[in-house]
Amino acid sequence: MMNVPNTGRFFCFFLWPGLCAMAQPAQTEINTSTIHTLHVSLAGQPSAAPVIELHGDKQVEIHFDALDQNAYRFAYSIEHCDADWNPSPLIPVEYLNGFTGLTINDFANSIATTTSYTNYRLLLPNDEVQPKLSGNYAVRIYRENEPNKVLLTACFSVAEPLVGISAEITGNTLTDFNQAHQQVNIGIDYKNLPLVQPQTDLKIFVYQNRRRDNAVTHLRPTTILAHRLMYDQNRALIFEAGNEYRRIEFLSHTYNGMGVDNIRFYNPFYHVTLLADQPRSHRTYQYDEDQNGRYLIRCSRCNDPDTEADYAIVHFSLRSDPLPGGSVHLLSAIYNNVLDERSQLYYNADAGAYQKDILLKQGNYNYQYLFVPDNKSRGETAPLEGDYYQTENEYSIYVYYRPFGSRYDRLVGMETFSANHFPPS
User: Fold this and answer.
1) 320 vs 260, 280, 353, CA distance in Å?
2) Tens digit of pLDDT for each residue in 147-170?
3) What secondary structure letter does DSSP report for 66?
C-alpha cells in the first residue's frame, strides 16, 4: 500500500504568524500534512475568485479539513500585502476594523466517513473584523495555543472599482497566427482616478487560469489617451495557449466515476486508481467544458458534501518517456496552482510513467501536467499537454494604484475574461 504523501514539510517559527510572509510572497498554501482541501472563493460561489468589493455585501469563504484525531481550536490573523503579495508597511490598525488572533468558531465533524475529519469555515469580513482598505490580504491560520506555527495561508483581495477594464483575447499574435499562443490586449479607463504618472502609478497583473508561475506584470502602456490606457500587441502579453484541463470524478466508493479504473479499500483508506493518462502534445485540439483547474467537492447521495464526502488516496499516472532537464508537476487547484515539490510527480521506470498519490476528498477535479525546466519556476504546457490557440482560458486582470508618496497598493479594478470565441483556422 502506498503511503499518504506529506503535503507540507516546512513550518515558520516567528514571533507572530504574519511574519511568515517575510520569507517569500504570500500564496494560498498548506504547511502541514494534517490539513487538506483548502478552498478560498466567494461565499456561495465556489468557482468565483476570492475578490470582494470594499465595503460591499459579499464575503470571502475559506474552507479546510483537519484530519488530526485531536480536537483543536484554530485562530487567524490578517495581513495586508502589496501587489506582489509581499507584506505592506501598514500595521493592522491602519487596514482593519477589529482585532487579530480571532478564533474560527464555525466547524463540524464528518458524518459516516471512513476518514474522520473536522470541516472548518471562515467568512470574511464578519462581525469581528472588516478590511478598511483595498488591496491584497493574507489570512494566517494556526492552532490557538501555537501562534508561532502557521498551518495554512489563504489569500484574497479587496477591490474598489475605480477603473474600467476591457480586454480582447486573440490567436493572432506577433509570434504566430492561430497556432500555439494567445495574445491579450487590454484597455484601462481611468476617468474616475486622479492618475498623474500612468506609466508608474498603475501596476497591471495578468493571470492565466489563476496561475502565478506565468503571470505578467511590469507592463507599460502602448498608447496613452485622455482617460484611457491601451496595452495592445505587447509581446509580454503573449501566453502559451495550453490545452483544456483533464477531468476526473469520484463521488462514491461503490462505482467508478469519470477517469477511474478501479476503487479498492486497503485499511485505513480507499484507493482510487485512475486510468493512465497519455501526453496530448501531438494530437488535434478537442474542446471540453472544463473548470480551468478548479475542483468541486461532491458526493453521491449526500446532503452536505463538506462533512459527508469521504477521502481516498488517488493514484495519478502519466505514461511517458522520462523528460530530461526538468520536473513534471500537477497543475491544479489541488495545490492552489503552485508548482513546487508538493505538486511534483516522480518517474517510475518499471511502469514507464510519472506517478503521484494524493489524498483527496470526493468530488470533481481538473488538472494538467506541466514540465518545469531546471532552475526555472515557470511551467510549460507544450511537452505534455500541447499548445492550441482554441483553448478556452481565463485571464484575470488586476489593476493596482500607488501614486508617488503612497504607502500601499490599492486594488482599483479586477475583471476576468474568457478566450472562447476564435475563428476557424
Assistant:
1) 19, 11, 5
2) 999 999 999 999 999 999 999 999
3) E
**Strand-pair partners of 77:** 140
Closest of 319, 380, 312, 313 to residue 355, by C-alpha:
319
Q: Which helix (H) or strand (E) segment is 313 a member of?
A: strand 311-319
For the chain, domains (ranges, CATH) are: 17-159 (2.60.40.10), 164-241+390-419 (2.60.40), 246-373 (no CATH)
pLDDT exceeds 90 at position 417: yes
pTM score over 0.90: yes
Q: Where are the alpha helices (DSSP H) in 184-248?
A: 198-201
Angle at 213 (CA atoms; ends 207, 218), nearest 5 degrees: 60
